[in-house]
Design brief:
Layout lengths: L9 H14 L5 H13 L3 H5 L8 H15 L4 H5 L1 E4 L2 E4 L12 H9 L7 E5 L5 H12 L5 E6 L2 H13 L5 E4 L17 E6 L14 H6 L13 H13 E10 L5 H10 L3 E7 L5 E7 L1
Parallel strand pairs: 3-4, 3-6, 4-5, 6-7
Antiparallel strand pairs: 1-2, 7-9, 8-9
Helix pairs in contact: 1-2, 1-4, 2-4, 6-7
């Protein structure tokens, strides 16, 4: 980007903002400044790039600089602008709830590819922002199906945001506050309902590894949604052990996993009665999804 712009122009402000974020160690700084300036101008990043010589008013520049300073602390971009995109859909982002990742789209595509040509019931366990269950519902609806999708989480903050995201994306899903399967059991511990498919992106980072995560994640995203306890497998053990009680015959369990967890999670699934356990790799050719049938 050329430096031959006067101080109030879009080009100058984008260039100086990128330099500031690069100095702070922010990856993709030149892309991010366009999102930040877009937030205060209500112009798309593409339109901004076509208007580099246009001047900004002082109030807009001040608001933009305030966002730059916040991002320079590694406060997540998605929390600053309040949104992200997942499966070509817009999702609201907010503190205390994990930000949807592109890698998680693999869970949704796996579920879509393995769904029958009929309406089914689906549980999105550890739903967070609701991105998995909502995206699944919306994409299935495009194919003419009206599935019964339940979004479950222990976090009230997550469920509140998931409800907002469901409304925004016109997804008729149910919201369930539950510590894993507890709210789906009767007083004797038996399942009160069963599903055709359970989708789950649980916390899977080893407790000792959390301090080594990117500052953006470590300092600002909820530890509750990250910490998989000592070996990172605590939630896989719990879900794999109980899921058979909540799945119909032949039902399917789909997990997102860390890049090095396939063998461990596959064994947990097989030990709990799941057959034909397979994996999917993400765009970086890393193991990302494990799935199998009961």
């Amino acid at each position: 980007m050329s430096d031959n712009f006067s101080e109030k122009t879009i080009g100058y402000q984008l260039n100086k903002g990128a330099q500031m974020l690069e100095t702070a160690g922010i990856d993709n700084a030149r892309a991010e400044v366009r999102f930040l300036l877009s937030e205060v101008t209500n112009l798309t990043p593409v339109v901004l790039y076509a208007m580099l010589s246009n001047e900004l008013d002082d109030v807009t520049i001040m608001r933009y600089k305030r966002l730059l300073k916040k991002r320079a602390t590694h406060y997540p971009l998605q929390y600053i602008i309040g949104k992200t995109y997942f499966m070509d859909m817009k999702f609201i982002c907010r503190e205390k709830v994990l930000i949807p990742r592109n890698d998680t789209e693999n869970v949704v595509t796996c579920a879509l590819d393995n769904s029958p040509e009929k309406n089914i019931s689906v549980l999105d366990m550890c739903t967070g922002s609701g991105c998995i269950g909502i995206a699944y519902y919306v994409w299935r609806r495009k194919d003419g199906f009206d599935d019964d999708v339940v979004l479950a989480d222990i976090s009230e903050d997550a469920l509140e945001l998931a409800k907002e995201n469901a409304i925004q994306n016109r997804a008729r899903v149910s919201i369930l506050h539950s510590n894993l399967f507890n709210s789906l059991k009767d007083e004797n511990g038996k399942a009160t309902r069963k599903f055709d498919m359970i989708l789950c992106n649980p916390p899977y980072i080893k407790s000792a590894d959390i301090n080594y995560l990117m500052k953006d994640v470590r300092d600002y995203e909820p530890r509750l949604a990250l910490d998989g306890q000592r070996d990172g497998l605590a939630f896989y053990r719990a879900v794999a052990a109980e899921a058979p009680k909540f799945l119909k015959r032949g039902g399917m369990l789909i997990f997102e996993i860390g890049y090095d967890q396939y063998m461990d999670v596959a064994k947990l699934m097989k030990d709990n009665g799941f057959k034909s356990v397979k994996k999917l790799r993400d765009m970086s050719d890393l193991d990302r999804v494990v799935y199998g049938h009961l």
